[in-house]
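Fold this sequence, please.
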Amino acid sequence: MEKRDFKIVISKKLFSTRWRLLVWVLFFLPASQVYAAWELVTKSARGDTYYLDSSVQTKGSISQVWGLVDLSEPIEGSASVKRLYQFDCVKGKLRVNQRLAYADKGGQGAVTSSEKNPGQWTYPDPESINEQLVLKICFDKKPANPKH
């Protein structure tokens, strides 16, 4: 093998290695970023896992944030649900403005159902998941394990 042939073989190997690395990064990076913006809040007695998006929008006493629930067992063909919450941090109330159910965990896959009507403002039940969400968003506190 001549010197020139050796250089061509090395450059082909480097080129193919770079392409493999690029393909790997493009293929696996999005999958690893599914939960990147979500912060774990709690897990229900049923085994559902609740997350809140790390970016919260606040105007006055009202904070708005997306929540994600990964269901332990699918319900009506849905493995996860995203909800757009609003929190009134002065009154300690919350409501859901939008809901999207997904076929796969992590809010991925096909949308199986959706609702875009703002719900009623409600006070969370004591020691509930909703109380934990209010405490996390409005007061950044973690209470004891919820009963619901």
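Helices lie at 3-32, 129-139. Residues 1-33 form one domain.
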